[in-house]
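[recover] target loaded
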């Protein structure tokens, strides 16, 4: 064969390969971009990170979540930016830190007690409503997914008024009181009028009374082949720990179970059963290979020694809910997407700030995800790429009532950062006696939370930790400096 023709054939073959390769590449990225998995967000309300079988608790019975964990990428060293309901849930809606979304409180001004002192529903609702503008004006996960062709259902805990405020297309919470609902969701004003408490009202029926709204929604979406998101954030195991008797019976007179753990453990198992019902329903009614399950807690809650009503309920320990300590701030994060993620235990530090960008990436919304501070956990969950070992995670603690809107720096009580084994907690807005809100710490504190997960050995004055302490301070100020 003449040399020239040979070269031409080679060049032609080369071009053909390039075209085929490009075509294959395009097909892959097209497939990835156009995949729109259904998404089930399962959010536990007030449960400490250790209190699952798969996290090592030998007393508590959580077989359904353990089963989900066995099928999931298990991020066992997960954190929450903050340790109380509303701002933690706002992070799961927006992918922003509380100081960024402005939702750093449970109750906007003038605060919970002042709301209770009001004498008309109209006054209360008009005073509570301006804060809803914060969620209305931000690109939330459901809003972005809805614009991408999803139907998005809100059920359970939700602090942003009507479900539509956050961009859900359907939902249960409508910022209206629920006559006769005794376990939560209502607020009694000073003149006896009922109003919506602000934490979910009608939505709080999910899990505790019914699962039907989710079942109807999923069936309907499946019938019309529309991708869907379910926000399942039941008021469980949140107090009141008033589970049916059969759940209490599991823990009475059990060796190793303390008196103050019984009612809480009962609620944890009641919650676990609902997760099993939900997962089995989705497995039966939807294409499970095209469905991503994500599990996370909104904040920790550890039973303390002080009894309260109803009977067998206890107040939580000071070091859990609301606090800057591990029992309040940690949560495992589970991601199950059959055929995509790998069941494995992953020990790198992650945060619930990563949830929204991860889910946006799963739905092909990469550009929208890139604007957010969290990282996409999918490559790690797929077993393709480890997260950086030196990653730092961050957060801040605020009082339950906001003193003003859009000024998180005026209210912040603590900031915290963890990198490697070390966690630094700084204090802010101390009063004249040097005490910050709730008096969690005396000044700044530093702990090795791997050796000392109970955070009892303060290393802040230990000269050995002077340099790493400085590094953590710099990281924290780069993340958010409320004094600048
Ligand atoms: Ca909570």
């Amino acid at each position: 064969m003449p040399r020239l023709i040979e070269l031409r054939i080679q060049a032609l073959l080369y071009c053909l390969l390039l075209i085929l390769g490009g075509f294959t590449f395009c097909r892959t990225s097209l497939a990835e971009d156009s995949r729109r998995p259904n998404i089930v967000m399962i959010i536990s309300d007030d449960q400490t990170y250790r209190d699952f079988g798969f996290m090592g608790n030998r007393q508590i019975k959580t077989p359904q979540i353990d089963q989900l964990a066995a099928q999931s990428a298990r991020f066992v060293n997960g954190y929450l930016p903050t340790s109380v309901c509303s701002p933690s849930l706002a992070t799961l809606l927006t992918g922003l830190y509380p100081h960024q979304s402005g939702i750093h409180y449970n109750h906007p001004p003038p605060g919970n007690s002042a709301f209770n002192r009001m004498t008309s529903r109209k006054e209360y609702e008009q005073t509570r409503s301006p804060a809803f503008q914060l969620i209305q004006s931000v690109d939330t996960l459901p809003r972005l997914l809805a614009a991408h062709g999803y139907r998005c259902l809100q059920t359970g805990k939700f602090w942003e008024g009507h479900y539509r405020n956050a961009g859900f297309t359907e939902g249960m919470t409508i910022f209206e009181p629920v006559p006769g609902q005794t376990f939560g969701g209502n607020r009694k004003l000073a003149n006896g009028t009922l109003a919506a408490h602000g934490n979910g009202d009608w939505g709080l029926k999910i899990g505790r009374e019914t699962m039907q709204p989710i079942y109807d929604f999923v069936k309907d979406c499946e019938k019309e082949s529309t991708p869907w998101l379910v926000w399942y954030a039941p008021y469980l195991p949140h107090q009141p720990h008033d589970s049916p008797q059969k759940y209490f019976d599991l823990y009475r007179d059990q060796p190793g179970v303390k008196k103050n753990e019984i009612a809480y453990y009962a609620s944890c198992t009641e919650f676990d059963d609902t997760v099993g019902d939900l997962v089995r329903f989705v497995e039966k009614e939807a294409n499970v290979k095209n469905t991503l399950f994500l599990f996370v807690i909104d904040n920790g809650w550890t039973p303390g020694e002080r009894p309260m009503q109803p009977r067998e309920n206890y107040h939580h320990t000071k070091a859990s809910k609301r606090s800057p300590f591990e029992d309040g701030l940690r949560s495992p994060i589970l991601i199950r997407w059959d055929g995509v993620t790998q069941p494995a235990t992953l020990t790198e530090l992650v945060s619930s700030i990563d949830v929204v960008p991860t889910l946006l990436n799963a739905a092909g919304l990469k550009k929208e995800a890139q604007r957010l501070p969290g990282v996409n956990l999918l490559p790690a969950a797929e077993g393709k790429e480890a997260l950086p070992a030196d990653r730092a995670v961050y957060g801040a603690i605020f009082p339950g009532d906001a003193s003003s809107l859009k000024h998180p720096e005026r209210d912040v009580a603590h900031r915290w950062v963890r990198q490697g084994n070390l966690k630094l907690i700084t204090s802010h807005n101390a009063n004249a006696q040097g005490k910050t809100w709730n008096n969690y710490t005396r000044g700044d504190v530093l702990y090795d939370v791997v050796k000392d997960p109970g955070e009892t050995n303060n290393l802040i004055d230990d000269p050995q930790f002077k340099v790493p302490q400085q590094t953590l301070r710099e990281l924290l100020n780069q993340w958010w400096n409320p004094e600048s």
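[recover] notes: The mean pLDDT is 94.
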